[in-house]
Specification:
By secondary structure, the protein is α+β, with helices and mostly antiparallel strands. It contains three helices and twelve strands. The site of zinc ion (ZN) has 6 residues, from loops.
């Protein structure tokens, strides 16, 4: 187990290493903010690629430790709001609980995919870009405000999930 940094710590988990809550977080509370250098997407299937966090249409961030260890889950306990660097608790998180977000909520780079073994009953089995999610899952994330603005804007969704026509530019 790593030292506690900013309310989180790194420890072994089902996927190798994961990031865990070092204290309780209330639903809606900010849990972490990714910081790290911006990188180009290598598109080579490497571990580095799978650790990149997309933060804009052509912008990627490679999170510093310990934040790089946040794993994906199809049933996550944190999510983004407007930006794609700050994760908020979407339900109460107990001390010692592993932190997850759904990688697909902030991915717009077809055809990148990664297998998922999160083990939840509704596991999709594959992690891809947001538009590849089943429509019901897209709608749920949009209605709950868990989709960052660059994804919503690109796809023409207002913050609550209602579709809007983008202004002609
Ligand atoms: Zn899964």
């Amino acid at each position: 187990m790593s030292p506690v940094v900013d309310g989180v710590f790194v420890a072994p988990c089902a996927f190798g290493r994961g990031l865990f809550a070092a204290r309780r977080y209330a639903a809606g509370e900010r849990v972490l903010r990714f910081v790290g250098p911006e990188r180009e997407d290598p598109r080579d299937g490497s571990r580095e690629e799978s650790n990149l966090v997309q933060i804009g249409l052509d912008r990627y961030l490679f999170p510093d430790e310990p934040w790089v260890y946040v794993n994906h889950s199809c049933l996550p306990n944190t999510a983004f709001r407007d930006d794609a660097v700050t994760l908020y608790a979407i339900a109460p998180i107990e001390r010692g609980e592993e932190l997850f977000f759904d990688y697909s909520t902030s991915i717009l780079r077809d055809p990148w995919t990664m297998g998922c073994g999160c083990g939840h009953a509704d596991c999709r089995g594959i992690i891809g870009e947001f538009p590849a999610l089943p429509p019901s899952v897209q709608r749920r994330y949009l209605e709950r405000g868990h989709v960052p603005s660059f994804v919503r804007d690109h796809l023409g969704f207002a913050p609550g999930g209602e579709a809007f026509k983008r202004r002609a530019s």
